[in-house]
Amino acid sequence: MFFLISWIFPKRMTQGIMYLTQAKFVVAVVVVLYHGNQVLLLRHSYRPRYPWGLVTGWIKGGESPLEAARRELWEEMGESITDLHYFYSGVVTRHHLEIGFWARVGPNNVSVPSRDGEILESAWFPVENLPRDILPAQIPIIQEAERHIHMQREFL
User: Fold this and answer.
1) Selecting from 3.90.79.10, 2.60.320.10, 3.30.420.10, 1.10.150.120, what CATH number does the domain 2-155 have?
2) Phi, psi of 125 (to 5 degrees)
3) How far apart are CA 36 and CA 52, in angstroms?
4) What share of the chain is helix, strand, coil (3-state, %, to 5)?
5) Averaged over 22-29, what is the pLDDT?
6) From CA 135, how far away is CA 32, in angstroms rounded?
7) Is 60 left (phi over 0), alpha (psi -120 to 50) or beta?
8) 41 forms bridges with which residues in the sheet?
């Protein structure tokens, strides 16, 4: 169909038709940071019921998922972490795609309260003892990262 449309209409009109007829998605990244068997969680100010969660953020236009993950790490932690590993992608809601990365970092990699008030604090939690007020949707993401890391170890 695209070939037929592009053959009949000029390029700009074809692009407009494609834009109007295709599904739109917002795409986010989520990053699981490990030190040993602990995961770093941030306490977010905008989620009073489930304040604890992973580093997350929306991908901006023109950014790759990896670039967005690195930017979010910088914005939420002030850290430049380059050794990120892809492990997950999934449709969270009908128009929300999420892409996950994990990394191993040192214990000194922690977040400080953000200037914009989004991040209040950070803390390391054992994977088997996450806080009760963690965002429930992020528990399976941490478990998936764990499976990915264990599978990777088996192949080494």
Assistant:
1) 3.90.79.10
2) -130, 140
3) 19
4) 35, 30, 35
5) 82
6) 13
7) beta
8) 123
Which residue, 154, 153, 143, is CA-closest to 30? 143
pLDDT 10s digits, 79-122: 788 789 999 998 888 788 999 999 988 777 666 667 677 888 88
Alpha helices in 22-138 (DSSP H): 65-77
Distance, in Å, from the CA atom of 129 to the CA atom of 131, rounded to the nearest integer, reads 7
In terms of pTM, does the model score above 0.85?
A: no
Domain limits, the chain: 2-155
Percent of the chain whose predicted confidence (pLDDT) is above 90: 48
Bigger pLDDT: 132 vs 17? 132
Distance from C-alpha of 151 to C-alpha of 62, rounded to nearest angstrom: 32
What is the DSSP code (8-state) at residue 134?
Answer: B
- List b or e across 92-108, with b for residues whose CB sees 16 or more CB atoms inside 10 angstroms: eeeeeebbbbbbebeee
- The residue with tokens 């967005």 is 68
| 44 DSSP β-pair partners | 119
More confident call, 101 vs 37: 101
Residue 36 DSSP class: T
Give the confidence band of 50 by pLDDT, cuts at 50, 70, 90.
Answer: very high
